[in-house]
Amino acid sequence: MTLPRHVAIIMDGNGRWAAARGLPRHAGHKEGVEPVRMCVRESLRNGIGALTLFAFSSENWGRPGEEVSALMGLFVEALDSQIDELHENGVRVAFIGDRQGFPERLRARMAAAEARTAHNAKLRLQVAVGYGGRWDILNATRQLAERCASGAMRPADLSEDDLSAALQLSGLPDPDLFIRTGGERRISNFLLWNLAYTELYFCADLWPDFNADGFGAALQDFASRQRRFGLTGAQSGEGA
Ligand code: IPE
Ligand code: IPE
Ligand code: MG
Predict the structure, then answer these.
(1) Catalytic residue among 46, 60, 189, 211
(2) Mean pLDDT taken over the chain
(3) Is the confidence at residue 211, as pLDDT, over 80?
(4) Using an 8 Å Cβ cutoff, are 158 and 132 in contact?
(5) Side by side, which strands form the sheet with 177-180?
(6) Could you tell me the residue range of the domain that residue 206 belongs to?
(7) Which of 6, 84, 202, 230 is the most exposed place for a label (fewest CB within 10 A)?
(8) Distance 15 CA to ligand 3 centre (A)
(9) Does residue 151 sit within a domain?
(10) pLDDT (tens digit, 9 = 90+) per residue, 130-153?
(11) How far is Cα 42 from Cα 65, in angstroms, rounded to an integer?
């Protein structure tokens, strides 16, 4: 079976999971930690080299203050409870996104987790927090513009590789497989540049219900896709 090298996931549906049980939204977020563990476990088991999870978008800052602070608390808690096991399992953790606005105790933990796991090589786990695809491209563009303004680079020489290298996922292959749980069929400002040729998979499971069978079904579906990258089927080696 052809496996993706990099899987990117929008973990959506926590609020609806909680509402269906008459619980507050944060109860759904809490319940969403276990499927994260499952995805890490399944990625390690299948030898998938990179996993990128969308945990909090730049737009999610606009949610009620109570929900935002519950999420910040949960991130701290989840990092504290998971980091030892992640490290023991050879997972290299990185956070992508704009960290401005995050509480200092969370920023300190994120930096510590990155430093501690920096030399691990089994799985690269990117957690997108305060992330927006448009912010990512703007941020990269600013860096390139500064290099041009300083004379280190000429605008005419800028390449797609230069922009890719200035983005948050710099150095990682583009995601091969994108999964969104929760039933919505949209990208919601996730990895806009990097998803150009990613296979998209949408499933109705609410995130807290997403399990190893669901992850396996997404991998199966991916294996059945014919990726053409703009060429003909014959050119890409998969028939007409
Ligand atoms: C995804 O679940 C988690 C975050 C965006 C932080 P939601 O909170 O969006 O859940 P729904 O979509 O309202 O059910
Ligand atoms: C996308 O989910 C962001 C995360 C899962 C972190 P949203 O729930 O914020 O997306 P929309 O609002 O349905 O587009
Ligand atoms: Mg949602």
Answers:
(1) 60
(2) 97
(3) yes
(4) no
(5) 91-96, 123-131, 50-57, 6-10, 177-180, 199-202
(6) 6-134+174-236
(7) 230
(8) 7
(9) no
(10) 999 999 999 999 999 999 999 999
(11) 34
